[in-house]
């Protein structure tokens, strides 16, 4: 512990010098600048490129450095020339030499190390590379199957390494924000581990952060908890779903919905990558009902308009039979979306595509929302830009229903979020008289039409939790008797949130 405290106050240079006492290189391939001219350095890396025995580009995780291959016949240089000139691309080499300024006019402003080069004096091939299954270049197209087969080679690409650096940097700043800036009583969660069974070849995995265990931590008086967890889910191969993702999970006592939202806004603002621009807080908020009415989805993409509008009053006097039939129902309405410049950009084939989509989703509440997104796809495919790919539009969606009818049996109810979600304070009495009308304290964070986080304030009353399970959901409360009993022992008001898809969207 004492060593860690001493280490934390060392200067950046001292830390760097301390780290390099454990490795035989003097510098990385990404750090040499004009200030290093004249210094003798030792670099390790992969041969990214070699040109006619004159120079090569050496690469490691930190960047690129140009190495000049000696052409004179000074003792030992002919051996270095032959060795470096014949080293296959992607071979691992060690090079020792002197940092020199590049000749006037030959600087490369696109490379951070573009003002210097290293004149090689000694070199060694540490591992020669055989013929590669594909070139390690971002612009080279390779099949997904081939990339997965040689994932360790694919990871050498600058794009994937940039994704890893971005992910690491964001998570690091999130930990800094939650531990150092809001760290009083904040507890980091434990890692998941596998448990062997007595049956050969089989094991089971303990859940990383089940809802009830987080609540038990709060009941235990730990006040605050967070965990950066690797999660696995059996998802299909849809573009917005991944079987594996990283999630930051937070639970807090004595907090309300507004407090959690402020925490998350501050967390994202603190950890947001600088090269992605700034984000403005507080994020706008929209109710679940507003989202469905205007966008046809509970995760609206607000980067473009084309909102759903109610045109019932306009058509109420028409003699169109199906219109009048729709309006005759108790809550019947006619809704539409206006497609800007649709006549100019959409072809007959596009209109047929929209028609088929409408047919396939007939009688679904989300049909217009899907048509809105499909219309945007078709317009952008035709050359009209609607959604800025560099823009990040965050949105809180709130006031979800606490319960929804079951798809397989609409006369029964199920939890819209999970059965531990607390009802909206204004609707608490409705829980006992008309649960279908109860709003919840469930909130989702939406980014560019994707749900990137979700959470809720939890039920902290044992009586209320038992009523929800037994009377509303018709579940056997004995399964959760341990949680209900714990709620009887002075459970504090508490709530939480989990952010899941954010890193995926930043990398995509």
From TrEMBL:
Query: Keywords for this entry?
Result: Aminoacyl-tRNA synthetase, ATP-binding, Ligase, Nucleotide-binding, Protein biosynthesis
CDD domains cross-referenced by the UniProt entry: EcAspRS_like_N
What molecular function terms (GO) are annotated for this protein?
aspartate-tRNA ligase activity; ATP binding; nucleic acid binding
SUPFAM superfamilies with a match to the protein in the record: Class II aaRS and biotin synthetases, Nucleic acid-binding proteins
InterPro entries to which the protein is assigned, alphabetical: Aa-tRNA-synt_II (IPR004364), aa-tRNA-synth_II (IPR006195), aa-tRNA-synth_II/BPL/LPL (IPR045864), Asp-tRNA-ligase_1_N (IPR047089), Asp/Asn-tRNA-synth_IIb (IPR002312), GAD-like_sf (IPR004115), NA-bd_OB-fold (IPR012340), NA-bd_OB_tRNA (IPR004365)
Recorded family membership: Belongs to the class-II aminoacyl-tRNA synthetase family. Type 1 subfamily.
This protein is called Aspartyl-tRNA synthetase 2, mitochondrial
């Amino acid at each position: 512990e004492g060593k860690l405290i001493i280490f934390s106050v060392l200067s950046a240079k001292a830390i760097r010098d301390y780290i390099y006492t454990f490795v035989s290189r003097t510098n990385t391939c990404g750090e040499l600048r004009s200030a290093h001219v004249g210094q003798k350095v030792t670099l390790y890396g992969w041969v990214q490129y070699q040109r006619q025995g004159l120079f090569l580009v050496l690469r490691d995780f930190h960047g690129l450095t140009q190495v000049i291959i000696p052409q004179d016949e000074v003792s030992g240089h002919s051996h270095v020339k032959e060795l470096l000139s014949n080293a296959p691309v992607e071979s691992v080499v060690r090079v020792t030499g002197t940092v020199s300024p590049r000749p006037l006019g030959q600087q490369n402003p696109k490379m951070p190390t573009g003002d210097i080069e290293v004149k090689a004096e000694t070199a060694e091939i540490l591992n020669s590379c055989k013929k590669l299954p594909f070139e390690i270049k971002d612009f080279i197209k390779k099949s997904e199957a081939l990339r997965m087969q040689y994932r360790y080679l694919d990871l050498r690409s600058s794009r994937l390494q940039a994704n890893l650096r971005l992910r690491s940097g964001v998570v690091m700043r999130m930990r800094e924000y939650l531990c150092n800036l809001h760290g009083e009583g904040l507890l980091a969660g434990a890692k998941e581990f596998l448990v062997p069974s007595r049956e050969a070849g089989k094991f089971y995995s303990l859940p990383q952060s089940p809802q009830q265990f987080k609540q038990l931590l709060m009941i235990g008086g730990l006040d605050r908890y967070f965990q950066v967890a690797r999660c696995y889910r059996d998802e299909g191969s849809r573009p917005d779903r991944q079987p594996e993702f990283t999630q930051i999970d937070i639970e807090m006592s004595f907090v309300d919905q507004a407090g959690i939202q402020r925490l998350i806004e501050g967390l994202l603002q603190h950890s947001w990558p600088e090269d992605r621009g700034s984000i403005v807080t507080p994020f706008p908020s929209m109710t679940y009902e507003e989202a469905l009415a205007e966008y046809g989805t509970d995760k609206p993409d607000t980067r473009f308009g084309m909102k759903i509008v109610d045109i019932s009053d306009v058509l109420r006097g028409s003699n169109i039979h199906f219109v009048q039939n729709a309006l005759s129902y108790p809550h019947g309405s006619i809704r539409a979306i206006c497609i800007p410049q649709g006549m100019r950009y959409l072809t007959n084939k596009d209109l047929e595509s929209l028609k088929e989509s409408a047919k396939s989703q007939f009688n679904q509440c989300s049909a217009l929302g899907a048509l809105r997104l499909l219309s945007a796809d078709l317009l952008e495919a035709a050359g009209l830009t609607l959604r800025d790919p560099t823009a990040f539009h965050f949105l809180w969606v709130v006031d979800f229903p606490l319960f929804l009818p079951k798809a397989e049996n609409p006369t029964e109810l199920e939890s819209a979020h999970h059965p531990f979600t607390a009802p909206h304070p204004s609707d608490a009495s409705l829980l006992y008289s008309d649960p279908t009308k109860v709003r919840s304290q469930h909130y989702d964070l939406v980014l560019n039409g994707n749900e990137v986080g979700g959470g809720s304030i939890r039920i902290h009353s044992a009586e209320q939790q038992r009523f929800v399970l037994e009377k509303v959901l018709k579940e056997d409360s004995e399964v959760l008797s341990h949680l209900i009993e714990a709620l009887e022992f002075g459970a504090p008001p508490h709530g939480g949130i989990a952010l899941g898809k954010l890193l995926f969207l930043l990398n995509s």
